Amino acid sequence: MKAALVTDLEKVSIQEIDRPIIKDDEVLIKAKTVGVCGSDLHLFRGTHAFRKPPAILGHEIAGDVVEIGKNVKTVKVGDRVTVEPQYGCGECEYCQQGLVNLCANKVVPGTAKWIGVFVEYFNAPERTIHKLNDSVSYQMGTMIEPLAVAVRALRRATVKEKDCLVILGAGTIGLLTLVVAKQMGYKKIVCTDTAEFNREMAIKNGATLAINPIDTDIVDVVKKLTDGKGADLALIAAGANNIVDQATACVKKRGEIGIIAMITEKIPFYSYQIVINELTMYGAMTYETKDFKEAADMINAGLDLSSFITQTMDIEHTQKGLDVLSQKKEHVVKVMIEF
Ligand SMILES: NC(=O)c1ccc[n+]([C@@H]2O[C@H](COP(=O)([O-])OP(=O)(O)OC[C@H]3O[C@@H](n4cnc5c(N)ncnc54)[C@H](O)[C@@H]3O)[C@@H](O)[C@H]2O)c1
Ligand SMILES: [Zn+2]
Ligand SMILES: [Zn+2]
User: Fold this and answer.
1) Using CA atoms, how far apart are residues 282 and 276, in angstroms rounded to an integer?
2) If phi over 0 gives left and psi between -120 and 50 gives alpha, with beta otherwise, what is residue 114?
3) Who surrounds ion ligand 2 at CB < 5 A?
4) Backbone torsions φ then ψ of 265, nearest 5 degrees
5) Strand pairing category for 80-83 and 2-8
């Protein structure tokens, strides 16, 4: 089968490799659509904390089940599915609480234990499978994974009031967070992005305001919008040196800051702000299965995110897909690879 391998920094090669052989508790999926994710760029660009090429990237997939292992009970050949791309050891204190995302021994695609999804056929354990309704396109099925990240980032907040939310960075994750936040009832949502196209996308998808943090003072804007109080919650979905300070300055007393962005270098921040205003800061790492299911339910209920798909290409053009997302020379939110 065809596979797209990152063989060196920013270099993809299409190679023929063997199809995965499924275990008794696994299914084999013929990929229909796979998504290129901002987090794939870390290995591609060489900024990943520990992973290095060569690797098969990708963890967002929708396709058809073509084979099932002999112990598989809930999935059958022909099912249209997506995959929650992680599973834990099942035994540690985190797995016991459903926190698979925090299991020290969790297995994720694109590693020695599990192939990445930029391949024609992908194996996955039965427990990671989520079914797609017949009315759901494979592209929307592939969007469930990043949508689950947005669901979790918002579910981690404990704010009671939902008057104002600030989303710093309106790439795929920031925009999906905007969509979920609207559904959750946040009244005013301010997005920031340095790219004009992303600010436009934010407005089209219901942001109250979308500002460029380079030329506009985000704190000023948020204070004006909230009668001087500040936002209830700020979510960080982009990396920049001053981004934590922007978030802490935007929120009101007892406000919360959630960090979704994987910022792998050290950045400074002013802790005094957190103390005097009794702010709470949390991280949001992927999702638990219940978040993934909630995202799958939203898509199965008809949530349409097709306007976020800005480029579609075949697997031969995986290099281009990663370059487009990495270089941002063209308008881009989500790049899809179709088989
Ligand atoms: N925590 C998790 O589980 C998880 C999951 C997926 C992605 N991520 C991380 O979330 C981040 C966003 O992912 P994405 O897929 O949306 O990436 P993306 O590249 O699509 O989006 C990032 C956006 O930030 C904008 N930006 C750059 N500098 C900015 C600044 N100073 N202020 C505001 N916006 C700025 C860019 O123009 C871009 O639109 C990445 O760091 C990614 O690794 C985390
Ligand atoms: Zn992803
Ligand atoms: Zn575990």
Assistant:
1) 17
2) beta
3) 37, 146
4) -100, 160
5) unpaired
CB-defined site of ligand 1, < 6 Å:
37-39, 149, 168-174, 192-195, 198, 213, 237-240, 243, 260-262, 284-286
- Residues 24-75 have pLDDT tens digits of 999 999 999 999 999 899 999 988 888 889 999 999 999 999 999 999 999 9
Of 296, 304, 334, 326, whose CA–CA distance to 35 is shortest?
A: 334
Per-residue pLDDT tens for 161-184? 999 999 999 999 999 999 999 999
Q: Which domains does the chain have, with CATH numbers?
A: 2-148+287-338 (3.90.180.10), 157-283 (3.40.50.720)
DSSP state of 269: -
Of the listed ranges 14-18, 47-51, 123-127, 278-282, the least confidently predicted one is: 47-51
List helix spans (H) across 37-137: 40-45, 93-96
